[in-house]
Amino acid sequence: MKNLLLITSLFFFLAISIPSKGDNLTANVSAIDITPPIEMKYALGGYGERMNKPAEAIHDRIWAKALVLQMDNRKYAIITLDILGIPSNVKSDLIKRISHHGWSMKNIMLLPSHSHGSLEMAALNSKNLINSPQIGIFQPELLAFLLDKLEALINDADRNYQTVKVGTGSRLIDGLNRNRRKDPDVDKELTVTRIDLTNGKPLAVLVNWTAHPTFLGGKDMLVSAEWPGYLQSELQNLIGNGVTAMFYNGAEGDQSPVLDGANNGYQKIEIYGKKIAAKAFDLFNKIKTKKVKELTYSYNVIKLPEHSAHPSFMKTGGEEYGLNENSMKMVMNMLGPTEVGLGAVRIGDLLISGVPGEMSAVLGMKVKNSLRSGGVKYVAIGGLANEWISYILSRDQYINGEGYESSVSFYGPDLGEIISNEIIKSGFLLTKAK
After folding, report:
1. Is the pLDDT reported for residue 7 higher than 60?
2. Containing domain of residue 123, as a range?
């Protein structure tokens, strides 16, 4: 019976993954301003010390952008968002609104940038009934605002498809990120994908770089897309021609940005974002695009290990978020999912593997290296994809490590190995789809 189920599952996977040989890839792109009015009095995410105080003003606008790809009557949407992260209800609520247009959990990937100057994730969580200022308080009107924007975004992108050519390139960059846990692993790979119309006009550019957007601290109370916002706007200016630049983070669980010489966080986000944009622009100009025949994707749901508070939780995460062991269990039972969906998409030479949380670099590079060995030239981690479950660490990092990342890993020592191995399995099937 187990073998029969395995064969049936594999057949279903291949049925949705293998593209038609005769079709060209078509695409469209759209962008929408998702900055809520300041009068909504919403909280900024990323720091418990903010105590759910509302944002004071808008420093720079935050955006959501959608690249919709279509081939052989199948379509896939990559949506980037200038926000901290999303709880599981956001994607499922969005699908309920747009499923009649052919959208499902399988063919959409939501990729938050993890900006610490943007919307509080807990304020978007309809299961959040805890009413804790440190964790964040659910705000139904903020969730409705974001869902309205995302629905309009994807409906706008899901039309007027044009044939496109795609190319991807990558390079290693030294000195712009570091491992904040002082582990040796640093993901220095910058990956850029350009999507051009057949006449050569750039339609969209995807940028993958791995670092926390944390130049802004807990006392900075202005709405901001952080350095990824400046990266995208600067790259759009450099390329011109109405291109849409989209950023998605990598396995940034222990990766911090590096920048010297700026006086404050708001100066740093501009300088750093423009530095990454310049590197991406240089790479963009070297990429040759071509027509591609591969648009394949996968999505599988796995059961998570039981909830478990790390032994060091009370020293770090517990203190920041005002929790004790009993209240921690209540929070996990209420907010922590028991299963999670893992999605991946292959576009020509590029494979994006979605990770539903903050994975450490050692695991992210393990995934990338394993999948590259399977035959795909470029592999990128889509960090915080679709939902945030917790930090995702190796077993050694969980057991022997100390500090914030370990204490905010909520599913025990084996979570990292389970997630990374499942991502490799599903990604490997995509590398074989011809």
Report:
1. no
2. 26-432
